[in-house]
Design brief:
By secondary structure, the chain is mainly alpha-helical. 82% of the residues lie in helices and 0% in strands. The longest helix is centred in the N-terminal third of the chain and has 26 residues. The radius of gyration is 20 Å and the shape is globular.
């Protein structure tokens, strides 16, 4: 009974995390007048403040300091740079009406993770998963041949987040500790951005109380889904968690077309059809494989 309750809690946390990421464009659209680099800086600094409170309450400070040394610290420097690049591209994409391309990037991302696992970690995948990756890759090729500019955003998001996940996988630190150290490493550049904006009279913070509250909210908007995801990962089967990751880009796609009026071209329909087919086949094969013994092919 306890196991069922734990799994149910994990499922709810996972759904909550991916829905939060899925509706993030709605929040970022409210900050359209704020330069993307300033939004990123506020996202980092207010997240750090929130995470510091969590770390203090949980009394995790000594453990995080002990873990964030040597090779792990170097890896976290790399992951901090990657997640900052990913966040900046995503913020810019939403503010400049490229939510459709951004959603495609996060549909591609799980397949990038597979490629990195095979190429860099020596992981084996089944024949069905290989076919699924091939179909999705065909969708990327179709869009690249038709409109290279559009696919650039998608690939930049997919690759930056894919390599971020890879680095975090091999870094010997947990989710809370890693995210805290990453934001701490990014705090200096974030402060520099805001100080420069203030000195040149272009700072968004302090000009409007409503806007200030939205920027402060960036901490919770950033940290909360990451913490929910980390908690979900500890409570549920990884195959199930993998299926949930398609919630976010699906919601982003729906907002782009239905709310933001971004044009859905025929090439987009073909591309998304191939990507969705590949993702569905991969998810189906992953679930099937998790229920049967793994055999080498």
């Amino acid at each position: 009974m306890t196991t069922d309750r734990t799994a149910r809690t994990g499922l709810l946390l996972g759904i909550g995390a991916y829905i939060s990421w899925g509706v993030l464009p709605l929040y970022l659209k409210l900050l359209k007048g704020v330069p993307a680099l300033q939004v990123l800086a506020h996202r980092i600094l207010w997240s750090l403040l929130l995470l510091a409170v969590v770390v203090l309450i949980a009394r995790r400070g000594p453990a995080i300091r002990a873990a964030a040394r040597g090779r792990t610290l170097l890896l976290l420097c790399a992951s901090a740079a990657l997640i900052a690049i990913n966040w900046l591209i995503y913020i810019w994409s939403v503010q400049n009406n490229h939510v459709l391309e951004a959603s495609l990037g996060y549909f591609i991302n799980p397949l990038v993770n597979v490629a990195l696992g095979v190429a860099l970690l020596g992981e084996r995948i089944r024949r069905g998963q290989t076919i699924a990756v091939g179909i999705a890759a065909l969708g990327v090729v179709v869009l690249a041949v038709s409109d290279g500019g559009a696919i650039g955003i998608s690939l930049a998001l997919a690759l930056s987040f894919g390599f971020y996940g890879f680095v975090r996988k091999i870094a010997a630190i947990d989710a809370l500790g890693g995210l805290t150290v990453e934001t701490l490493l990014l705090a200096g550049p974030a402060l520099a951005v805001l100080f420069h904006a203030n000195s040149t009279g272009t700072a968004a913070f302090g000009s409007d109380r409503h806007l200030d509250m939205l920027l402060i909210l960036a901490g919770a908007v950033t940290a909360a889904p990451l913490l929910m995801f980390a908690a979900a990962a500890r409570r549920m089967r990884y195959a199930t968690l993998g299926l949930l990751q398609y919630i976010a880009p699906t919601l982003q796609f729906a907002q782009a077309v239905l709310l933001f009026g971004e044009p859905l071209k025929p090439v987009h329909i073909v591309t998304f059809a191939l990507i969705w087919t590949g993702c569905a086949l991969y998810a189906f094969d992953s679930v099937r494989g998790s229920r049967t013994p793994v055999t080498a092919e």
